[in-house]
Amino acid sequence: MNPAGRLIVVVLFEGVDLLDVTGPPEVFSLARRETEDAAGYEVLLAAATIGPVTTAAGVRVLPDVTFDDLSGRRIDTLLVPGAVEVDGRRRVRALTDPVVVEWVGRLAARTRRVTSVCVGAHVLAAAGLLDGKRATTHWSTARQLADEHPAVEVDADPIFIRDGDVWTGAGISSCLDLSLALVADDLGEAVALRVARQLVMYLKRPSGQSQFSVPLEQVATTRRVEDLRHHIMRHIAEPLTVADLAAHAHVSDRQLTRIFKTELGTTPYAYVESARVEVARQQLESTDATLERVASACGFRTVDTLVRAFRRRLDTTPTEYRRRFRTTASTREDGRPGDQGRPSSV
What we know:
By secondary structure, this protein is of the alpha/beta class. It is built from 14 helices and 13 strands. 42% of the residues lie in helices and 15% in strands.
């Protein structure tokens, strides 16, 4: 294949996140090395002008080409990173430059595959490229994306989502996972796994892998909701029905549902399930507890319920999750070091 067979264009602009820009090209470079250049990837950094671009990290990056220079070229993959601003209260807001948005819309029209990493999804949404599609972004700006672009089905949980020829990735380091998925889509899983090994990534993560602590990091604006969240975590092994939570908050069942929808953008049932999955993930990563004990400790009651929740939330099973993500020094329930092989209990 011609080395220019797959043109990857990374969009540059002032304040862009540095890893979003440099991480994916490293993956594509390694894919070329692992296939002796047969991957055919050519990566170009493109900006409005050819001058240096200052990233959020303060490192300056030189574009290879301007957006104008690409006018006559067919693009295989357009990769759009993002930028944020943080106020005095450490609240994060995604930024979009109208000029960049306009160019992304133009370039996307002659691109086979459009992707965003981290808050770059806001740029795609502003260009109308996510309308009617399911998409993800960094958990800290997911609410902003949903509020500003109601035509987009925002799912803040997965590390990346593919909807047709549009791919969106979550927070910063997941740009590597997204890039590996693109390589797997082009060249197969075997090549992607070889690249993952070169990156010293433990294993290539599946798209359904959740962003870390997403349901627990959502910001509550009232003391009552914050109290409910802490109550849920303290009593995670208990039934925690809508009636139980409503009684704790001294409100009606209907009012409780309305509070969760307004404050956290979800239902009480969905939030509790997410919290249970989060606790189960931590146990699977750090202990050798059997699935029966994990299910009981997290309030799932049965292993089948635990498995269904993992499939629904993470698109994987507890067994597969533990195989991929358990720490190298897990501890058994009796305090002794865990077996480093495949857990015998699952």
